Amino acid sequence: MQKDDEPRYRIRALHTDDTVTVYQAYAPRIGGPAARTGRFPASWKRDRMTWIKPSFLWMMYRCGWATKPDQETVLAVEITRDGFEWALRHSCLSHYDAGVHPNEATWKRRLRQSPARVQWDPERSLHLAPLPYRSLQLGLSGEASARYADEWTVSIRDVTPLAHEVHGLVRAGDLAAAQRRLPEERPYPAGAELIGHLTPAGSAEAVIGEARRSR
């Protein structure tokens, strides 16, 4: 169930000691080969920005439960924690925020220099309604995109059947069963050293404290 005391900024993800699972949705011509081989096919362009999402429900919101055109195949991509944290350290917010950046010129300079971008968008409920706290989206380009595909990826699974199953349970009104089928997304231990440059002053410290208490 959703909690009322969630901090506004927090990374929640299915993770192990070594890996983090993120989600993407593709057309079957890309998603199918990726899931079969565990690697993105040659048609997957490393020179384009790609967005990864640790939140399964935010992915469902984005792809419409795997029904939107060219998003019919949902992939769970397991990547190394080292790679994930490299991307966070080398990322910049995708928009100017006066609570994070000293001025707009500084933000623009960081954006040009950063191979990764971060957006904090409202987390989603089982009905895909916005919740009052935020979920991470991580955009990878250039060096980050190439590392993601060629170095960080540990495994790729097709979780489209899970998306359809959870959606069916939600449509049937069985929210308890739908909740049980969701991936176990726990607070990721990301403090100021990882996301302090991506959240307003003081937010990262609050998040790391909450993550430690949630273990």
Q: What is the strand and helix layout of this fold?
A:
Layout: E1 12-13, E2 19-26, H1 28-37, E3 50-52, H2 56-63, E4 73-80, H3 81-89, E5 91-93, H4 104-113, E6 116-124, E7 130-140, H5 143-152, E8 153-158, H6 160-171, H7 175-181, E9 186-187, H8 192-195, H9 203-214
Parallel strand pairs: 5-6
Antiparallel strand pairs: 1-9, 2-4, 3-7, 4-8, 6-7
Task: Count the DSSP helices.
Answer: 9
Q: Biggest sheet, in brief?
A: 4 strands, mixed
Q: Mean pLDDT across all residues, rounded?
A: 91
pLDDT below 50 for ≥5 consecutive residues: which ranges?
A: 205-215
- If you compute it from the alpha carbons, what radius of gyration comes out, rounded to the nearest whole angstrom? 17 Å
How would you write the strand order of the largest sheet? 3-7-6-5
* End-to-end Cα distance: 17 Å
Shape: globular
Structural class: alpha+beta
Order of helices and strands: EEHEHEHEHEEHEHHEHH
How much β-strand is present in the residues? Answer: 15-25%
Helix content: 25-40%
Overall strand count: 9
Overview of this structure, please?
By secondary structure, this protein is an alpha+beta fold. 38% of the residues lie in helices and 24% in strands. It is built from 9 helices and 9 strands. The strands form 3 sheets. Strands 3-7-6-5 form a 4-stranded mixed β-sheet. A 3-stranded antiparallel β-sheet has the order 2-4-8, sandwiched between helices. A two-stranded antiparallel ribbon has the order 1-9. It is globular and about 50 Å long.
